[in-house]
Amino acid sequence: MYLLKIANISLKLAPNLPHRLLEERFIALLQSCKRSNQVHQVQAQIITNGFQYNQYITPKLVSVCSSLKRMAYARQLFDQIPDPNIVVWNSMFRGYALSESYREVVVLFFQMKSMDIPPNCFTFPVVLKSCGKINALIEGKQVHCFLFKCGFRGNPFVGTTLIDMYSVGGAIGDAYKIFSEMFERNVVAWTTMINGYILAGDLVSARRLFDLAPERDVVMWNIMVSGYIEDGDMVEVCKLFDEMPNRDVMSWNTLLNGYANNGNVEALERLFEEMPERNIFSWNALIGGYAHNGLFFEVLSAFKRMLSESVVSPNDATLSTVLSACARLGALDLGKWVHVYAETHGLEGNVYVGNALMDMYAKCGIIENAIAVFQGMKTKDLISWNTLIGGLAMHGRGVGALNLFIQMKNAGQKPDGITFIGILCACTHMGLVEDGLAYFQSMVHDNSIVPQIEHYGCMVDLLARAGRLEQAMDFVSKMPMEPDVVIWAGLLGACRIHKNVELAEVALQRLIELEPKNPANYVMLSNIYGHAGRWEDVARLKVAMRDTGFRKLPGCSLIEVNDAVVEFYSLDERHPQREEIYGVLRGIVKILRSFGYVPDFTGVVRAT
Asked: Are 272 and 301 a contacting pair, CB within 8 Å?
């Protein structure tokens, strides 16, 4: 179809059409291009008709390449133009900015400046915004001086962008200086300055400007409300919300997110029911609020309600949150249903949904499905690689995790600290102590990653599980930070496996200092004493545990039954179907014993 259109223009219309009309036809064709091959076809006819350096067509060609994320090709075209005008330069700036290549914007601008090509009012906002994005405040000041010399000091759009750049760069004084010197301050300038003070944590100055603003639109109101939300002052948030004259749905959503982030779930639910109108962000605020506060059953209930009551369709953020809840609850069937929903609604290729699917399948025990999702993803980010590496390690498939790490590096993806947590866990499951030590050193020396307490915890766990308890203790003593509960609990568990009573006592003492009211630590050491036959020590610990006044929480299991997740507690007598449940358990025990299974209760001491 495209070739037919192009042929009609180039072969039939070109001799008869006026020059300007032919330009418009080519521009229209470029604007309708959806794929790179279509751009190449149109470009071939542009060259055939001698328009390759046309001052109207060339910027559009560069712009289309930019919108299709083909900046390398756009730059190639740009470099071939003998004398590009400012419109072409601006197209390159916008293209790099759209592809988030902000450093290239700044470099290209200074290249243009060195060639004495005069900018226009559309040049500076993109360049200044790029300086702010990469925190290039020195370069931003140089651009500021240049635009001052070029006579753009009074342009309100440029002034607003300067305020934003200085605010993002932490130079709030310079931002206010620009604001105070502006000849014309519209509502956008006032809003940008108020937001700058909020970014700087100066709510007093932000509120002072808000009260002085001659005009306040809904965006300014929402930003001021958001500032108080970030400060945790929900009283002032509610006062401002009640005073807001023209609340839109985003105003309600802002308050919803405020309640969610500050842990007030009851107010979140009440406000959601009062809303006159709801959009996708409203539902995401409710669902995300439940997830943020650990209410994963409510996440699933709200999602089902959204599907049944709302005309709004879930988006990638909705599905990612729901899949995360499925992973936490082990709701595999619902997770699979969400997977099918994503496939049938065009979200299968979404990287966020793909990452959430991998995480859900890995945590629900279906690692093969996680691998299949990963292999089917056309776009993979760092989280994609980290999720599958961690999932493989969690399932004891250390070889697969380490091989995937090699593939990750070959694909040009740079690892981060989370990547190495997965790698060190893989080494732990495989007992690869020397490899784990080598990866730890590589993380520091080859990848310039500063080890965090999680990395030290992995190394201590690796050494302790391998029975190298003294080396693990030496590793703990050389840590640059104080070991946490996880590290000492891991050491205590390893002491039980390797029957090291002395070190277990040291670990318990540290745990008592960090968690004096956690009886589970006493139970662990009691079991170690019991296995060693030290019953007097067992009795002493039972007294100490009773003196804490706290009881060990019973074990809890979650299973999915009839599209719902059900909780079961150890020795649970409150469940309405307890007779049937215990009947099934007794039957399972009989089957196990018929195959010769005998439980080993040696050294096990029940918490009281």
From this structure: no
- What does the alpha-carbon distance between residue 506 and residue 526 come to, in Å, rounded to a whole number? 14
Helices (H), 169-264: 172-181, 187-199, 203-212, 218-231, 234-243, 249-261
Between residues 601 and 578, the one the model is more confident about: 578
Distance CA 473, CA 468 (A): 9
Cα–Cα separations (whole angstroms), residue 579 to 244, 373, 567, 583: 57, 41, 16, 6
Contact yes or no for 387/327 (Cβ under 8 A) = no
What six digits make up the tokens of 603? 């050294």
- DSSP letter string over 112-150? HHHTTPPP-TTHHHHHHHHHHHTT-HHHHHHHHHHHHHT
CA–CA separation, 185 vs 188, rounded Å?
A: 8
Task: For residue 188, give the amino acid letter.
Answer: V
Looking from the CA of 419 toward its CB, the CA atoms found within 13 Å total 24
Angle at which helices 367-376 and 351-363 cross, to 10°: 160
Q: In the prediction, which pLDDT does 532 show? A: 67
Distance CA 324, CA 363 (A): 10
Report how far apart the first and last C-alpha atoms of the chain are (Å, whole number): 79
pLDDT in tens, 171-219: 999 999 999 988 889 999 999 999 999 999 999 999 999 999 999 999 9
CB 334 within 8 A of CB 342: no
Task: Give residue 454's Cα distance to chain centre.
Answer: 19
What does DSSP assign to residue 561? E
Grouping H, G, I as helix, E, B as strand and the rest as coil, residue 566 is strand
- Contact assessment for residue 237 and residue 258, using Cβ atoms and an 8 Å cutoff: yes
Check: CB of residue 265 under 8 Å from CB of residue 288. no
- Cβ-proximal residues to 5 (8 Å cutoff; 6+ apart), any chain: 29
Other residues' Cβ atoms within 10 Å of the Cβ of residue 305: 13
Q: Are 426 and 403 in contact (CB under 8 A)?
A: no
Residue 482 corresponds to which tokens in the numbers above? Answer: 């104080």
Residue showing tokens 């080494």: 427
Per-residue tokens: 445? 């020396």
Confidence at residue 4, expressed as pLDDT on a 0 to 100 scale = 45
Beta bridge partners of 556: 569
* Model pLDDT for residues 318-358, shown as the tens digit of each residue: 999 999 999 999 899 999 999 999 999 988 789 999 999 99
Tell me the sheet residues that pair with 564. Answer: 561
- pLDDT at residue 427 above 50? yes
Q: Which two tokens stand for residue 297?
A: 């059953």
- Higher-pLDDT residue of 424, 47: 424
Between CA 489 and CA 461 the distance in angstroms is 10
* Mean predicted confidence (pLDDT) in 400-414: 94
Q: Which is nearest to 359 in space by CA: 397, 318, 328?
A: 328
